[in-house]
Amino acid sequence: MSVLRLTVFSENLKHNFLLMRRTYPDAQIAAVVKANGYGLGIENVVPPLAEAGCKTFFVNRFEEGEKIRRLTDSAAVFVLDAFIGEDTLQSYKNARLTPVFSTVEALSRYPQEQNIAVRLDTGFNLAGIDAFDEQTVLQALKGRSVSLLISHLSCAERPEDPKNGKQLALFSKYAALFPEAEKSFAASFGAALGKEYRFDMIRAGAALYGSSALPDSLSVASLTSKVGWLRRFKAGESIGYNDACLLKKDTLVASVPVGSGDGIVHKAGCFVRFKDTLLPVLSAPTTNYLPVDANAVSDDIHVGDEVALFDDVYTPDRLALDAGMEVGADVLIRLNGASFS
After folding, report:
1. Predicted structure pTM score
2. How far is CA 126 from the centre of its chain?
3. Whole-angstrom Cα distance, residue 311 to residue 309?
4. The CATH number of the domain covering residues in 221-333
5. Sequence-distant (≥ 6) Cβ neighbours of residue 276 within 8 angstroms
6. Nearest-angstrom CA–CA distance, 219 and 305
7. Where in the chain is the domain with CATH 3.20.20.10?
8. What is the CATH number of domain 9-209?
9. CB contact set of 295 (below 8 Å; sequence gap of 6+)
10. What would the pLDDT profile of 86-142 be if each residue is shown by its tens digit?
11. What ranges in the chain are assigned the alpha helix state H?
12. By the 8 A CB rule, do 239 and 282 touch?
């Protein structure tokens, strides 16, 4: 049995989707549920989002799209990294998924296909058709009807970065060349840059899962475990591999049986929550153990007691800041593949 218990707050997820829709009424809100629903499980996030009115989902992998189709019959499902593996156009048609053409090679493989979704790389420089090579792009799309045109901002979390405007100008040029296509340029942080970035559709990821990208959004999950061991140590003693943590005071150490192997990102400067008290993490975890300073609750805590690695109080966003990461979605997405009870 897993030592981790994940709880997804479906109502909060619905709240965030509806808040996103109220905040940006000028664009359709699509949900990004890549990496197994940002680590929370596609089966846990797609049904409440669909109930809230989400009609369009984005994933990266074909297999993720198949999972979504089993959960909703009517929603549009786009697969961003189409034709990178063994998937074929026929497999998309059979599964009723929409492939996003992201390479010239994929376009050349299916030269007769019309009403296609196309992803351009306007400066993210990791995936998509090179938008800086206009001649190649236009040649590859010559005679094609494009139903959806996509790109992705690389610096949207830094509104003052001039690269945002440069990418917008390049994407806008292609948007004008394909006036009949629906356009999607902004994700969660990009949407806040201004109406000119939002176009027809916002691909909301981080904002849906409780993030500063959407003020007043709610935390959508808690992750808990149990205290495995409690032991008192004297100042000067050390814990962990290579004496990773040298104790500066007498300390009651609570060892929680979770670690990097479970996608845990905690390190010194982070906390876990026991009842109403935040307990400092002493050092980065080993593969399976996380050491915590339990001095503040020494008379109350026992082996087997539950601690929250994050929840609606010590949120994933707060944890991400404490861990030196960008946003809470980065915390959640690392749980993909972890085993939960």
Report:
1. 0.92
2. 17
3. 7
4. 2.40.37.10
5. none
6. 23
7. 9-209
8. 3.20.20.10
9. 249, 251, 252
10. 889 999 999 999 999 999 999 999 988 999 999 999 998 899 999 999 999 999 999
11. 10-23, 34-38, 42-51, 62-71, 89-95, 104-109, 134-140, 162-177, 188-191, 195-198, 316-322, 328-333
12. yes
